[in-house]
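Mods, move this if it's the wrong board.
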Amino acid sequence: MFTLIVILFVLGYAAIAFEHPLKVNKAAPAILTGMAVWTCIMLGHAQLFPAGHGGPEHLVDELYHHLSGIASILFFLLGAMTVVELMDAHAGFQVITDRINTRDRRVLLWLVGVLTFFLSAMLDNLTTAIVMAALLRKLVADRNDLWTYAGVVIIAANAGGAWSPIGDVTTIMLWIDGQVTTWNIILKLIVPSLVCLVLPLLWIGLSMKGNITRREVQEDPNVARVSKREQYTVFFLGLATLLGVPLFKAATHLPPFMGIMFGLAILWAYTEFIHTRSMEDRGQYQVTAILRKVDHTGILFFLGILIAVAGLETAGHLTLLSTRLSDTLGSIYVINAAIGVLSAVVDNVPLVAAAQGMYSLQTFPPDHTFWELLAYCAGTGGSMLIIGSAAGVAVMGVLGIDFMWYLKRMSVPAAIGYFGGLAAFWLLWH
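Not the wrong board. Structure tokens:
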């Protein structure tokens, strides 16, 4: 049964990895894998656990224990995604994007990179990547230029998300579970993350000259129905909600999903107030309509994969893997570097979830170098392949970037940035 669980997990993972050829949304195999793993655990508990373990009743209690942590992550994501979609519906992001006027290729390269880096830290890398990809599609006409800037967006979004507690799903997971704290993760990772961004920008900028060909942008007719006052108010309220979550957690000691839901409720009430008072039909700007745009399949994917990983933890697979990694590789730097490289092929969410299961807070206490390295490596390693991160997959879908093109043009600078940032961390904190 122990081996069967591994086989089921690998098969499920393969189905997730080959989502596009199979034409099956990744949420379906993720949920199926999670349910199958726990079904095997319950049916084979007599083989998996020693006598006196407690039987099925104890396993159900363990499942509920895991589910409480998983639910806090999912509710946080749901709240954050709703806030961001609400800001976008009110053309809030145009407050930033309208300021981009340059045509110089190198200037735009650095502008896009730096803007994405800090925007990702404030929002999250997935949302930022989608927003920036949409912006680039409106600004850049030439396909090669467009894909190059999009590659920079992927690298910058992942680098920016690594040093912020709310910038990446994996960092959120570590932050919510108590492995890292807000100010420590910022202090320790901001310089390595900057190195991870700057080195690829320098490398790519060497081959860039002249001006871009700008695409003529047509005004969205719906945007005119939202006043400037409403646009700015919703944008800054949403931004305050997202940025205020760490402060809310520090002040109240409540879990982060409570902070994001608190802010969402305020924003919800405000948008209901302004749109229900309007003489026009503004139903598309209300939260009830916005919720339809939220990526619910993505949330279900996280549910399935996190439950599956929790099953591997319960059954003892992760403990065995951690022992093997520690015995084989030894150094926490080598272990995390390997995890980062692996995250270019395998989704970083289950990798981090697996590491959380493999290594307890007794082994590595909060703010230990291991967790900080894990946040950096898992967050930035996925940039080496376009399928290695949620940001990469999203941009690939929005702009239709070819896998091999990215491999040839962006993988090398992404790898230089990744290992450069890792070296910077070692020099600063070793």
